[in-house]
Amino acid sequence: MKPPILSVRDLVVEFPTRRGTLRALDHVSFDIAEGEVLGMVGESGAGKSLTGAAIIGLLEPPGRVASGEIWLRGERIDNLPREKMRRIRGRRIGMVFQDPLTSLNPLYTVAEQLIETIRTHMDVSEKEARKRAVALLDRVGIPAAARRIDDYPHHFSGGMRQRVVIALALCAEPELVIADEPTTALDVSVQAQIIDVLKEICAERGASVMLITHDMGVIAETADRVAVLYAGRLAEIGPVRDVIQAAEHPYTAGLMGSIPTLTQTAERLTQIPGSMPRLNAIPQGCAFNPRCTKAFDRCFRDQPDLIPRADGRQVACWLYETAKSEVSNG
Ligand SMILES: Nc1ncnc2c1ncn2[C@@H]1O[C@H](COP(=O)(O)OP(=O)(O)OP(=O)(O)O)[C@@H](O)[C@H]1O
């Protein structure tokens, strides 16, 4: 079996504060295989963006990786010097953020930005870089790309601008694209088209995608596997089809209830009562226990870990603990 493109091992991200250290990511581990789309889902504040930022080495201080390892195709990248990491960003890992203005500089034309990025990472002439840039803009669905390439970002609509950002993220042909809520700011009708184009191009090139979203519906339509994050810990990981058919973690089941179907309106969707705990008030045992209708004594006492299974799924929930580990864990 091929090694994963990305391997995150026991990632711990902390914020030192005057009142003590807050742990925002707690031993998060997952892999992304070559060509795979991994969806990372969870409520606001679960730690999705921090996971992406830690992978690309752009955690904002005072946030820091306290422990754990991040590997890109077998090479450890969490401890690289800043300059080396800068070369990995853009070249080997492309990034798409929710707000196109994070990625695009309003003072330069799209051509200038694409050509510069291509030439920073690849040894090609200006003419060749422009040719590639036009072809990519065309591929992401910008009409009259050969002409529009000389426009400034503000000349494009929100949806078109996000297509430009996708072109920018993909122009140096990265192996992995991290897309953090790439369509949240856009009209629902445009969202699916943008995700589709990102997914299609990555599939053509064999690139992997980590798609961060709070929207289980987007994951259901797009991802191969899903990782569910709750209060900085992974609750469940597995193939999307299996998880959708039978979510095991009660939190995942709650998220599934929030996917609209043709017969449901948004108002009638199941919502999980309560809210995610603050980082300084994570309850003892399973962090989901105050909201869980199935919690029993052990859930209030011990924190469950993800348990790898033969079918590729992992669930961190005492409901699925076997009698054997119950005995060995006392
Ligand atoms: N500078 C900071 N100091 C303390 N805590 C922080 C800081 N920055 C982020 N956090 C905490 O880290 C947690 C994870 O934040 P993150 O942005 O990754 O969540 P998210 O799941 O991506 O949510 P959203 O969908 O709202 O972006 C949050 O609880 C947040 O309060």
TrEMBL record:
GO terms for biological process: peptide transport; transmembrane transport. Residues 6-256 form the ABC transporter domain. One of its GO terms (cellular component) is plasma membrane. Pfam families: ABC_tran, oligo_HPY. One of its GO terms (molecular function) is ATP hydrolysis activity. NCBIfam families: oligo_HPY (TIGR01727). This is Peptide/nickel transport system ATP-binding protein. It comes from Roseinatronobacter monicus.
